[in-house]
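#onboarding

Welcome to the new folks! Below is a worked example of what a typical request in this channel looks like: someone posts a single protein sequence, and someone else replies with the predicted structure as tokens. Don't worry about understanding the tokens yet, we'll cover that in week two.

Example request:
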Amino acid sequence: MHGRGTTDSAEAPYRHPTWTYTDEQLFEIEKERIFFKEPLLVGFSCEMANPGDCFMFQDLEDINVLMIRDSEGKAHALLNSSLEAGHVSAGDLNKCGENIQHLPCEEKYGMLYICLDKASELNIDKHLADLTPWFQQWDLADTQLIGEHVWDLKSNWKLALDTFCEGYHFDILHKDSVGDFSLGNISQYKRFGSPQRHHRMTFPNKPMLDLRGTDDKDWGMEIQTHFQLVHFIYPNVSLLISPTAVEFFVLYPGKKVGEHITRYRSYWRGDINRASWSGGGAKENFDFIVYVVDKEDYWVSANVQKSLNANRRKFSTFGKNEPSLINMHRNFLSAVGLDPDIKEAPDWEDLTGDKKTGSVAA
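Example response:
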């Protein structure tokens, strides 16, 4: 990314098959091989800061997980189909009985991770890989929850996730909102992980233009207010981190392939009246982001899904200026055992042995 307005790019455009947003068999396999196998970031430490604090994770189909901190301060994830917050005390976690199952759970760098695979050896550092040093610096534990908003939307979870992975639409879709202070179609892109499934996109804000011709040695820490750091944490989190706020979006498949749930939480650092990158205090910032996503991003996503459901086009073309989308979707295909360059939907019966449900053999 340079002052003359270029952006990090992929080597070539990528034709992505649109059946990946509408195929019922693929949808079931994604849930089984991705959401029931991979580490899932479900929240931040500040949401259960004290012994006995808890919250429920219920956004994934028919899954109830109680996140609770025990009397010694350790976080736990308890799985039970009828479990409700308040039915288990912090001091009695070892006396819960056989009907309560402990899931892999780890807390580090202010983040709470779980895995729905009971046999998983959850390791946050291994999952984040070379992103780990960055999270060590950001001190996400020292934040406070400002607000939460949930969308139950008729769009595939991957289609909604696409919204957070490119910036060329800022000047068009967000002309009077995000586009008012952010430079569109300009970003720095970097992949992380092994394999490289996470990414970070750096979007410059318009005040950065005032720094042209100045010595970067004189910029100081305030330079951080001149850009937005948007992270994709595989498989389903978009995380915008700034000196004042942390915007946490986590997306889950819905009951049908063309449905999903997005849970958005806004966290604040320090004084809640301190101005954010969008110009307002904590509550104003939260309301602003809900408005932008609801009225601009997700309105478009729902209408695109309608078009995809009608099977009006076979491919979407991700341009060279969308390297994040290309890498993300290729990784999703690899995760379910498909060739990242696949064009036509496979014969699911050959792959799974169950053409009706698409369930994957153990």
